[in-house]
Amino acid sequence: SENEELWKEESQMFSLAQCIREEGIQAMVEENLEEQTPEEGIIAKLQKHFRLSEEDAVRYFEKFGREGVPV
Prior knowledge:
The chain is an all-alpha fold. 80% of the residues lie in helices and 0% in strands. It is built from three helices and no strands. The chain has helices spanning 2-34, 39-50, 54-65. Helix 1 packs antiparallel against helix 2 (39-50), helix 1 (2-34) crosses helix 3 and helix 2 crosses helix 3 (54-65). The protein is elongated. The mean pLDDT is 91.
């Protein structure tokens, strides 16, 4: 039905938006790590620019900040 098609399209758009958002979060984390921004500063920026809770910001930092970056 038409409603099912609209629902499917909306779900696909939401998924695409989530992917784009995560790419932006990853880019911010990586760029700040390259600039040697402290972890707390990166988490605060994620909260501010992406309107994340502290818990979500920490989760994204752990997901993207540990990959291939010497500690």
